[in-house]
Design goal:
- It is a single chain.
- This protein is mostly helical and 420 residues long.
- Helix 1 packs parallel to helix 8, helix 6 packs antiparallel against helix 9 and helix 8 packs across helix 14.
Length: 420
């Protein structure tokens, strides 16, 4: 009997090795596809942002009316949070990425079609809703690719999103300069996204988890996930403040020339995008905890420099340091959350991103309230409490939580079923 089964065992061994090699060969395609969808996600969002003035003018909206309409986008984003984790945990992130990317790009076209305030509000709500479904599901895909590759890649994927911001702004500027309406502009982006989505759909990770360990769909986040969520909350408060108030700071505090009021925001964005392409390598070399500590420290130094020396060049350096500081926090935290031992990746990412997004929402209004009662400099100084909190919370992270993907075991590559 042993003589009969021996060839079968050999054949199984050969098949296992072959499957592992095919799985390993699929990883570059996985990385390319996930990175491409990250890029298109950012391009889609930046395209909308670049045409806000055009849409305001075409609908003849006052500043207060525009502010009310714009609130529909974060509302859609926030309301989708309870659904995102459940969908992903139930059917897998691949089956959420593909339809949410399709509907997200279609919602962009609906924004361009809108000729009334109500239509625009509903379109923005849908845009925010599907943007977040895509956000959580593609981050879950990124976490799965990290597991297959056995190294951190999350920051690089987020760098693709940031890079797309520049591309979207450049395309928007060209479209405006040539008199192209938002509808045609958004239709072009939508068609491009649909093509990319169709191609990439064949190379997304089929199953999110690279282990056979079963995890519950619903469960209260453990202390480690709550800690990661608060780190994201603190960092995204600072990030949200920079997105909404950097230009105002250069006008009111730095007293920059009108033509240079946007240079602070541009410097911040350049630093953030560049650092994201380096953060994965730095994390592998120095560890997650040290990288988060450094990120909080850089953000603190940058804020203090801009507040204590509010001249043009010191503030510019300060904004550059802030960009370096906030760049790595969210992707590193998402990467760690995706490796949760208590919740499925999609559910864990939803829990952490919910806390982080709350920081992004409340940061800018808090800046406004403090600035109204004191000054804009004082409000920026108050944000340093958040960046210092990132350092403190990162220091409290247990050593076992700060994984190094480059030293994971190799069981992931033996699972050919994880790739399509």
């Amino acid at each position: 009997m042993s003589e009969i089964t021996k060839p079968t065992n050999i054949r199984k061994t050969i098949l296992t090795v072959g499957d592992a090699r095919r799985a390993s060969g699929a990883i570059p395609a996985n990385r390319f596809s996930v990175g491409s969808i990250f890029f298109m996600h950012g391009l889609c969002f930046a395209s909308w942002a670049s045409r806000i003035p055009s849409i305001q003018e075409s609908l003849k909206l006052t500043s207060s009316q525009l502010g009310g309409v714009l609130f529909a986008l974060p509302m859609g984003f926030f309301i989708s949070l309870p659904f995102a984790g459940w969908f992903i945990a139930k059917v897998g992130s691949k089956k959420v990425v593909i339809p949410s990317a399709f509907l997200y790009s279609i919602a962009l076209v609906l924004i361009g079609i809108s000729t009334e305030v109500l239509h625009l509000t509903l379109s923005l709500f849908a845009f925010g809703f599907f943007a977040n479904l895509l956000n959580i599901s593609i981050n879950t895909q990124a976490s799965a690719v990290e597991g297959l590759s056995k190294k951190r890649l999350m920051a690089t994927f987020h760098g693709m999103w940031s890079l797309a911001g520049f591309g979207g702004a450049a395309i928007g500027t060209w479209m405006i300069g040539h008199g192209v309406t938002p509808l045609y502009h958004f239709s072009f982006i939508c068609i491009t996204f649909l093509i990319v989505n169709t191609v990439c759909a064949f190379h997304l990770v089929l199953r999110d988890e690279v282990t056979t360990e079963k995890r519950p769909l619903f469960m209260m986040p453990d202390r480690s996930l709550i800690g990661l969520g608060f780190i994201a909350f603190c960092s995204m408060m600072a990030e949200g403040a920079m997105f909404d108030w950097s230009g105002v700071y250069f006008i009111q505090v730095v007293k920059a020339e009108p033509a240079l009021t946007g240079i602070g925001y541009t410097t911040f964005m350049v630093a953030m995008a560049a650092m994201r392409f380096l953060a994965d390598r730095l994390s592998g070399k120095f560890g997650l905890k040290r990288l988060l500590q450094l990120s909080g420290l850089l953000t603190t130094i940058g804020l203090l420099l801009a507040v204590l020396a509010p001249q043009f060049y010191p503030s510019l350096v300060g904004f550059f340091l802030i960009g370096l500081g906030v760049s790595s926090v969210v992707p590193m935290v998402y990467s760690e959350a995706g490796n949760s031992k208590t919740l499925s990746p999609g559910t864990a990412l939803t829990a952490v991103s919910s806390l982080g997004f709350m920081g992004f929402l409340v940061g800018p209004p808090i800046i406004g309230v403090i600035a109204e009662t004191t000054s804009l400099r004082i409000s920026f100084l108050a944000i340093t409490l958040m960046s210092v909190s990132v350092v403190v919370l990162a220091s409290l992270m247990p050593r076992r939580q700060c994984r190094n993907l480059s030293h994971q075991d190799t069981t992931a590559t033996n699972q050919i079923t994880t790739t399509n």
